[in-house]
Amino acid sequence: MLTLPEVEKIAHLARLHLTEAEKQQFQQQLSAVLDYMAVLEQLDTRDVPPTAHAVPQQNIWREDYIEPSLTTEDVFFNTSQHEQQQFKIQSVLLDE
Amino acid sequence: MDLTSLTLTELRHALRTGQTTSAAATEAIINRIVAVDNQVQSYLTLADELAYQQAEAADQRIAAGEETPLLGVPVAIKDIICTAGVETTAGSKILDGFIPPYDAFVVQKLKEAGAVIIGKTNTDEFAMGSSTENSAFFTTRNPWDLRRVPGGSSGGSAAAVAAQLAYGALGTDTGGSVRQPASLCNLVGLRPTYGRVSRWGVIAFASSLDQVAPFGRTVADCAAMLQVVAGYDPRDSTSLNEPVPDYAAALTGDIQGLKIGVPEQFFGNGLNEEVAQAVRTAIDKLVGLGATIHPISLPHIRYALPVYYLIAPAEASANLARYDGIRYGPQINGDDLLDSLKKTRALFGPEVKRRIMLGSYALSAGYYEAYYGKAQKVRTLITRDFKEAFTQVDVIATPTSPVTAFRIGEKADDPLSMYLADIYTLPLNLSASCGLSVPCGFDSQGLPIGLQLMGDTLQEATILKAAYAYEQATAWHKRLPVLQSPSSPDEEE
Q: In sequence order, which ranges of B163-239 are alpha helices (DSSP H)?
């Protein structure tokens, strides 16, 4: 069973604000799902390589040439928070 | 001529022979959407103005003697696939109002082929679900019974095609999100081999599993959709640079000597008896058509569900980290940047939050090897099972869904029982195989049942050939749902 502090820690890692009710609910539901996953422990996979992609392809290269890209108008179209062709966010470093 | 009752293939014939125009077909579809989609609720956004322009352009190309499998054909697009200038939300409040600046590869291909894009269809939020109940906007109804779900996550696309509100549609199939709704709505839905269709411009859910997948009312309709969207795209590094065969040429009806594997693991606990009976009868039909049956085993298949529900949420938690409200989507202002970020991301719905939490946990320090690492290794065993099976047989036949369409609300509060809806479809996504669902009967309540046919890597033509032979020997695909007149009271609202 996941503990409430564990749920809170994961929520922080995932950058999710959860209500108290959501924390309680996820504690129950995630624990149930994780219990279900325990079936995998039955399998000995010591000598089995992992699969990251079903159809593995490696080292996909392309020539280094310039292609048309989005206009700045397109790039900023979906936000109101921009200035001088840059996205504008709240301060990260604060004056002391 | 009742234009909306035509199949895609029949419409193409009517367009080619001058019996109708794309503009007329587009108008008929849009009129029907206006008349009945308030019951079905398959579309999130209509792009009717653009659609009429595309129809006019298509009519000019038809008049000039041009031919493509979709020229002039009105189709629908799942709202997780980017369409330039047309709102794309992935069924989520976090992308409410997002207008993509570009078309996805598959949309570019559809436009080049002269298809008419009618609109964007409903989906479980970020394609996470099996019923469309996780859409942040509304739940789509199954045209066969409006009190029931159409399946999901591509339920809007499935319901639109089943209700004759589009001649074909695109969905995405990450764990069964096209085959399962195809099964529940009496359609053909085909999940191509990973890499067969470019994911460029498709909003990412689980990148090692996502694949764009077409719906049609018939096998030929579905093959026409696949023909247009399949192919290499250098902008998707997992796209396969392999020639695209002529899928229509595979629809011969001849399956003499085709080897069909039947894994008993797919006929066990949890499978509805009527579904089992219909699928076994369908397999007998294939034998009657000249196929041979071979018992096979996929010994690790029972681990597919836990493997999937570790890998998909882990990849989703990474993919969905980008939704911060800064570059697109609504932003909730908090005390500082971190607070704003967390509050903005609270716009995700419960299932998306649940999967982000699960994925973050599986990837977090101390648990990575035990969960995500373990799942990737078991994925190898499942892939090997399929590869081994396909050295013995050409096609694997199973049920698509363990049950027919379930009632809205029935599984909504029990995530694990909802996850089990994909028990027969998601193993394929973990492997390098392809698969489709084809109509194979109805249960005693008149709800559709689907037969799943799976094939080896890039063997889409083989499964289409088998499905076509079966379809031509049966009449299930000819049945259409009857929608109540708009004035009748809606039950259980």
A: 179-184, 219-229
Domains of chain A: residue spans and CATH? 4-42 (1.10.20)
Contacts with A30 from chain B: Cβ below 8 Å: 354, 357-358, 361
Is B335 contained in some domain? no
Contacts across the A-B interface (CB distance below 8 Å): 151
B430 touches chain A (CB under 8 A): yes
Nearest to B107 by CA among B216, B200, B26, B191: B200
Residue B433's alpha-carbon distances to B195, B425, B491, in angstroms, are 11, 11, 41
Q: What is the pLDDT along chain B (493 residues), one digit of tens a residue?
A: 799 999 999 999 999 999 999 999 999 999 999 999 999 999 999 999 999 999 999 999 999 999 999 999 999 999 999 999 999 999 999 999 999 999 999 999 999 999 999 999 999 999 999 999 999 999 999 999 999 999 999 999 999 999 999 999 999 999 999 999 999 999 999 999 999 999 999 999 999 999 999 999 999 999 999 999 999 999 999 999 999 999 999 999 999 999 999 999 999 888 999 999 999 999 999 999 999 999 999 999 999 999 999 999 999 999 999 999 999 999 999 999 999 999 999 999 999 999 999 999 999 988 999 999 999 999 999 999 999 999 999 999 999 999 999 999 998 888 888 888 899 999 999 999 999 999 999 999 999 999 999 999 999 999 999 999 999 999 999 999 999 755 444 444 3
CA distance B487 to chain A (A): 40
Alpha-carbon span B45 to B155, nearest angstrom = 15
CATH of the domain at B55: 3.90.1300.10
The owner of tokens 């799943």 is B452
Closest Cβ opposite residue A53 in set B97, B101, B238: B238
Q: Are B173 and B213 in contact (CB under 8 A)?
A: yes
Active site residues of B: 78, 153, 177
What residues of B are in contact with residue A10 (Cβ under 8 Å)? 357, 360-361, 364
CA angle B361, B365, B369 (to 5 degrees): 85
Residue B194 resides in a domain: yes
**Taking a C-beta distance cutoff of 8 angstroms, is the pair A50, B380 a contact?**
yes
List the single residue in A with minimal CA-CA distance to B375: A40
Total number of domains constituting chain B: 1
- Does residue B442 lie within any of the structural domains? yes
Task: Indicate whether B204 belongs to any domain.
Answer: yes
The C-alpha of A42 sits at a distance from chain B's nearest C-alpha, in angstroms, of 10
Residue B371, chain A, CB below 8 Å: the answer is yes
Residues 55-74 of A with CB under 8 A from B: 55, 57, 60, 62, 70, 74
